[in-house]
Amino acid sequence: LAGERLLGELIDAFSTLPGIGQKSAERLAYHVLKMPRSEAMQITEAIRRVKDDLRRCTLCQNISEEEICTICSDESRERNRICVIEQPKDLRAIEESGSYQGLYHVLGASFSPLEERGSEQMSLDKLVERSRSDEVEEVILATNPDFEGDGTALLVTESLAETGVHVTRLARGLPTGGQIEYMNRSILKDAVEGRSSFKTAQDEE
Amino acid sequence: LAGERLLGELIDAFSTLPGIGQKSAERLAYHVLKMPRSEAMQITEAIRRVKDDLRRCTLCQNISEEEICTICSDESRERNRICVIEQPKDLRAIEESGSYQGLYHVLGASFSPLEERGSEQMSLDKLVERSRSDEVEEVILATNPDFEGDGTALLVTESLAETGVHVTRLARGLPTGGQIEYMNRSILKDAVEGRSSFKTAQDEE
Fold first, then answer.
1. Most buried residue, A74, A90, B191, B199, by CB count within 10 Å?
2. In terms of CA atoms, which chain A residue is nearest residue B6?
3. Nearest CB to A44; choose among B30, B48, B65
4. Does B191 touch chain A (CB under 8 A)?
5. Banded model confidence at residue B177, pLDDT cuts 50, 70, 90
């Protein structure tokens, strides 16, 4: 089609992205065609900077613009707890929950500048080293509640055995807002096994 | 969040795109973080080329890499018919239908290098000029079958009156594959008013 080779290349590029099918890719490409050049360049520049200007924090392995990330260098955070997560996305989710004030350690934050295999092993060694510090009292395992995540949790626990640090993991049970009739066997098993005594306000007086 | 200023900027950039909400934008940004740099650069390069290397065909105003687009310069096309469309997307749809072999004229192909107002007027003047050619026998109006499209069609017809060219417009009626019970009043009105005699194979012998 006339002039559509370049547009076709853009459509192809967009459709490699997750959740973008052929139709969405076409809509996006025609949108780029119509948008002001400056806005389009903001997108390309944002992509380039994410690829070129981000690296890993040398302490926690999270993505960072500096050698030490803003969480690790934040003196107001609780420095006696390290929460172990699989990827930077998980850190974001936990931070947004506002339920945790300690430090983090990212296991598999593989992103392109450091895509070499074995980065997980490197990160694990680093975690062991950090856990040896007298400052650290607890390592919280926050890997995904699935087969792979549980395997990772086991591996991390074994590696930390020698350090004597207290290892905990996130609670399992019914997700708030869910409905029991739709929960699968594993969830219900976790919920039953992990049940706790139910205290009313009166009991606590 | 640590290192997330750049990622946040990318999320913001993605969420300006149509059909990309906050959650999709986050998923895309983390995908870019993980993908090989070379793939990410393919996307930015495709965007840049669409903004920098595309222009309008000086004849039909469709997007083109050259001064004259591949359709206008294709000698095998029927040069006695011009199909008038609102935007390049519409050209793509008609071409994909395989039902038309003539030339096109794009009215409002506004994209950034030429975003100045009045480009529609410029394009209309061009259409009048093209229609004056002895070669052109028919101008087919293929604006959208809605209020705005009908208005545009009227405007184009008025402009072409002086040229004496035969002006037609695309048929209105029931969309093949649809169900009469779901058709609105306008569609049914068009279908009734535009009814044609029903010929069986026998009749045609």
1. A90
2. A50
3. B48
4. no
5. confident
CB-CB contact of A103 with A79 (8 Å) = yes
DSSP, collapsed to helix, strand or coil, labels residue A134 as coil
Q: Which of A2, A51, A70 sits opposite B37 (nearest CB)?
A: A51
Half-sphere exposure of A49 (CA within 13 A, CB side): 18
The whole-model pTM stands at 0.72
Q: Kindly tell me the burial class for residue B39, based on how many C-beta atoms sit within 10 Å of its own C-beta (0-12, 13-18, 19 or more).
A: middle
Q: Are strands B138-141 and B103-106 parallel, antiparallel or unpaired?
A: unpaired
Question: Which amino acid makes up residue A59?
Answer: L
pLDDT tens profile A109-166: 444 444 444 567 778 889 999 999 989 999 999 988 888 888 888 989 999 999 999 9
- Residues B127-149: pLDDT tens digits? 999 999 989 999 999 988 888 88
Question: CA A53: distance to chain centroid?
Answer: 19
Strand partners, A105: A84
ipTM, interface predicted TM-score of the complex = 0.73
Q: What is the pLDDT of residue A1?
A: 54
Q: Locate tokens 């300006």: which residue?
A: B16
A1 CB contacts (<8 Å, ≥6 apart)? A8, B70, B71, B91, B92, B95
Cβ-Cβ contacts under 8 Å for A175 (sequence gap 6 or more): A187
Q: Please give the DSSP secondary-structure letter assigned to residue B83.
A: E
Diameter of chain B by CA atoms? Answer: 79
Q: Is the pLDDT of residue B47 over 50?
A: yes
Question: Three-class SS of residue A142?
Answer: coil
Q: In chain B, which among 151-180 make CB contacts under 8 A with chain A?
A: none
CA distances from B200 to B5, B193, B203 (A): 69, 21, 5
Those residues whose C-beta lies under 8 Å from the C-beta of residue A75, and which sit 6 or more positions away, are none
> Each residue of B26-41: pLDDT tens digit?
999 999 988 889 999 9
